[in-house]
Design a protein that fits this description.
By secondary structure, the protein is mainly alpha-helical. It has eleven helices and six strands.
């Protein structure tokens, strides 16, 4: 169906007309179609209604023309000040609420991680944050970071972006950061550091990030707990929810195995332990 261009025009009598296409001219109040109720021409929507149903496209230039917002990151004794355009920040429901109604264009975020907010801003302006996720399903190489995350720094970077995106209401960024977590090659101690952060900074109901952690440790705890010495035990005592989730995974897997064996499955298939949704390798 050809696109109809509607342009205001004024004829010699001073009456406003609407021009549709190149040939058909519709006067105000005419649509070219009969009104099914009374057989007369239907009413053309008002300009306000037309604009409401077809809002103007917001361009990147519009974002850059918006006011500048000052972001004060970190504690008051050693803050870092960043600046961003209000139009882009308002794509976050949290920022939209805090910048609406003539509120100050200065926002203090004393408890926000600097690297995480930097990744958030990079994502707002570019749609990605470093290291980028490549079409091959890997992360862009970074010569400044080791190939194997021994400390958990790489895992924590993406985990902090995840929790910040949750706070700011930016669901696509949550999904992106979570997918990057599974692309990090890490050690057992790094995994435990990551698990501790997850269970101390996410809600109990957040199965998206907690379930893969429990699954990962549930499948490998018989090996990893020896590699992490007493840290695994300390983690279980410090975060009982973690211990319960891991134990639940192990018991559920055993229950499926027994059920499959009784049904003559001989292991595998339905009774096979589900693989962790985490794709990254463990060193």
């Amino acid at each position: 169906m050809a696109e109809v261009r509607i342009n205001p025009d004024v004829d010699e009598t001073g009456d406003t007309q609407m021009q549709a296409g190149d040939d058909d001219v519709l006067g105000i109040g005419e649509t070219g179609a009969a009104d099914p109720a009374n057989g007369e021409a239907g009413e053309e929507p008002s300009t306000a209604e037309a604009e409401a149903s077809n809002p103007a496209r917001v361009t990147f230039v519009d974002y850059l023309r918006s006011p500048i917002v000052e972001l004060v990151i970190g504690p008051s004794d050693s803050p870092t000040v960043l600046y961003a355009h209000q139009g882009l920040l308002s794509r976050s429901p949290w920022f939209e609420q805090n910048l609406s109604g003539g509120a100050s264009n200065r926002i203090e975020l004393p408890d926000t991680d600097l690297e995480a907010i930097s990744c958030f801003l990079e994502y707002l302006y570019t749609g990605e944050y470093f290291p980028a996720k490549l079409p091959s399903g890997t992360l862009a190489s970074d010569p400044t970071t080791p190939a194997i995350d021994e400390s958990g720094a790489q895992l924590l970077k993406h985990a902090k972006v995840y929790t910040l995106a949750e706070k700011l209401g930016v669901t696509p960024l949550k999904s992106l950061s979570h997918s990057k977590i599974h692309l990090v090659t890490s050690s057992a101690s790094a995994e435990l550091t990551y698990a501790r952060y997850v269970y101390s900074h996410t809600a109990r109901s957040d199965a998206t990030i907690r379930r893969p952690v429990a699954s990962f440790w549930g499948q490998r705890s018989h090996v990893l707990r020896h590699e992490t010495e007493g840290s695994f035990r300390d983690m279980c005592l410090e975060y009982p929810e973690f211990a319960f989730d891991v134990l639940s995974f192990v018991l559920d897997a055993e229950e499926r195995r027994i059920k499959s064996k009784r049904q003559g499955g001989g292991g595998g298939g339905e009774g096979e332990e589900p693989k962790s949704s985490r794709k990254r390798a463990r060193a």
